[in-house]
Design goal:
The structure is a single chain. The protein has one domain: TIM Barrel (Alpha-Beta Barrel). It contains eleven helices and eight strands. Strands 2-3-4-5-6-7 form a six-stranded parallel sheet. Helix 6 links the parallel strand 6 and strand 7. The longest helix has 18 residues.
Length: 290
């Protein structure tokens, strides 16, 4: 049996160039930047802007990341789609490219528990690699997650980020015992609370991998106070600014060529005070301007 995945698995961003195309060189740079920081795995998911990618681009991002990782760390690829058949197709493609696991949210739109269980059973039957159940937004709940895992051979992980996140992580850990390894998400906002409740990993943004690895190492080493200080001093200040600054942080460190988002892009401009606060945080953390 393969060693269970655990630890810090940043969800990568997709860099874009001035023509709104994928900047593959910058994407490879993000992969190396995170692996060099000591992360335990990499993820491709919603923060990767996959809803804005064509099917071919979605496949290409996975291909580039898997190729650049060179089996140094496992790669988890979100392959969810509105239909079971599309999810199975995307998942098989990811598996064929060399992905170490796939990740899917349960089907949306008021689908029954039995249909959700069939969805994951169909996916599991089609694959040879592990599956993450991503619980975001509407909660599946620990008991249902357990039933899905009992029926689906390859569903052995869960990324839990529904609200209230620490309590949902605790519930998933309780019901997943001996069968499902639980990761936290939500940008690492509740990392310490999740670890305290038995989480075995986190899937944050890829802009602060060194800080997240330090927190993980200190927590695993039993130095909870040191872990708390790093989270409060190096992670929390950035999380307070908001999720749209992470490409800018990578840009300022020279990891990616441009911090642009794919059109239609979210409004990324910070107001004057928030921009000054962000600059102060970057200066304190040693993150320079481009």
């Amino acid at each position: 049996m393969a060693t269970p995945m655990r630890g810090v698995f940043p969800i990568l961003i997709t860099p874009f160039d001035g023509q709104d195309e994928i900047d593959e060189d910058s994407l490879r740079s993000v992969v190396d930047y995170n692996i060099d920081a000591g992360v335990h795995g990499l993820g491709i998911a919603f923060a990767t802007e996959i809803p804005k990618l064509t099917e071919a681009e979605r496949l290409r991002v996975a291909e580039v990341v898997i190729d650049q990782s060179r089996s140094r760390v496992p790669v988890v690829v979100n392959t969810g789609a509105p239909s079971t058949s599309a999810t199975v197709l995307y998942s098989r493609q990811a598996q064929d490219l060399g992905a170490d696991a796939v990740m899917c949210t349960p089907p949306a739109g008021g689908v029954s528990e039995s249909e959700t269980r069939r969805y994951f059973k169909s996916l599991s039957d089609a694959l040879r690699i592990p599956i993450f159940l991503q619980e975001a937004g509407e909660a599946v709940g620990g008991p249902v997650m357990r039933r899905i895992a009992e029926e689906s051979e390859h569903l052995r992980y869960a990324k839990v980020e529904s609200s209230p996140t620490p309590q949902k992580v605790e519930e998933a850990v309780k019901y997943g015992e001996g069968l499902v390894t639980v990761f936290g998400g939500a940008s690492g906002t509740h990392l310490l609370e999740e670890l305290r409740r038995g989480s075995q990993g986190t899937m944050p943004w890829p802009s602060l991998p060194h800080a997240f690895v330090k927190v993980w190492d200190q927590w695993q080493g039993g130095d909870v106070e040191a872990a708390r200080q790093v989270w409060e001093q190096e992670i929390h200040p950035v999380l307070r600014i908001g999720g749209l600054v992470h490409k800018e942080i990578l840009h300022r460190q020279g990891v990616i060529e441009s911090p642009r988002f794919r059109s239609p892009a979210p409004t990324t401009a910070l107001d004057e005070i928030t921009q000054r606060e962000f600059d102060e945080v970057c200066e304190r953390l040693g993150i320079g301007r481009p």
